[in-house]
From TrEMBL:
Protein name: Protein broad-minded
Organism of derivation: Hydra vulgaris
Source species, domain of life: Eukaryota
SUPFAM superfamilies: Ypt/Rab-GAP domain of gyp1p (SSF47923)
Domain (BROMI C-terminal Rab TBC-like): residue spans on this chain: 29-216
InterPro entries: BROMI_C (IPR055392), Rab-GAP_TBC_sf (IPR035969)
Gene3D superfamilies: Ypt/Rab-GAP domain of gyp1p, domain 3
Pfam families linked to this entry: BROMI_C
Lineage, broadest ranks: Eukaryota, Metazoa, Cnidaria, Hydrozoa, Hydroidolina
């Protein structure tokens, strides 16, 4: 994806510094580092190391409502975050993932329940890293672009498509007692979102009307 490693590292560090200033512009909090910004790094890679193009995109995306659900660092240091005890990705996105999982994929939901492992735990791990180290690169790009250009609830249906893909493995590893270890370490190299477009569209058609109303209230 990148031509010069040393130059790319320098440019990425510069981009991360810029986004940190943007994220904390309205904050009086001096403790600025709260974890690595995976989303910014992936945007940098999507733009093939073009720091100016990546920065232009991030500055624009920062003001879109969808950024609060896709860019996990987006609400850091912002007064908006004070409305929540927890990040809205947890209180809204993960809430709806679990709710729809129970309705649409009850065996998967039961496997999580019987393993005493919250669905939100693995979803938050995926979201924090923007699926890096889990999905193949083309699927990560599909997730990012879909979350940017489609509706606010796209990440919900994207995760449900992954659970649909993993259904048999989740049930199997629940039976063998290592579901948590499997989910935290497994790669999703065989997952292709193109194979689940109809599934995603079906979910959106049935649930978007009330989910979007809630997600828009941020």
């Amino acid at each position: 994806l990148l031509t010069s490693k040393s130059e790319a590292v320098s440019d990425l560090n510069e981009l991360l510094c810029r986004t940190t200033k943007l994220l904390y512009a309205d904050s009086s909090n001096d403790q600025r580092f709260c974890g690595f910004d995976w989303f910014t790094s992936i945007i940098f890679l999507i733009f093939r190391g073009d720091i100016d193009a990546a920065w232009k995109f991030l500055k624009t995306f920062f003001y879109l409502k969808s950024s609060s659900y896709v860019w996990m660092k987006r609400l850091d240091g912002k007064p908006l975050k004070e409305k929540f005890n927890l990040h809205p990705v947890y209180t809204k996105i993960c809430h709806y993932i679990e709710m729809l999982l129970e309705k649409e994929l009850p065996y998967v939901y039961s496997a999580f329940y019987m393993a005493d492992y919250p669905v939100s735990s693995i979803c938050l791990l995926w979201f924090r890293q923007s699926f890096l180290n889990y999905l193949d690169w083309p699927e990560i790009v599909c997730y990012i672009t879909g979350s940017v250009v489609i509706k606010l609830d796209y990440p919900i249906y994207f995760c449900l498509a992954i659970f649909n893909h993993l259904q048999s493995d989740i049930i199997l590893h629940r039976q063998t007692g290592n579901l948590v270890k499997y989910l935290r370490s497994c790669t999703l190299s065989k997952f292709r979102v193109a194979n689940y477009i109809d599934f995603i569209k079906s979910l959106s058609k049935r649930y978007s009307f009330f989910i979007l109303k809630d997600l828009s209230d941020l």
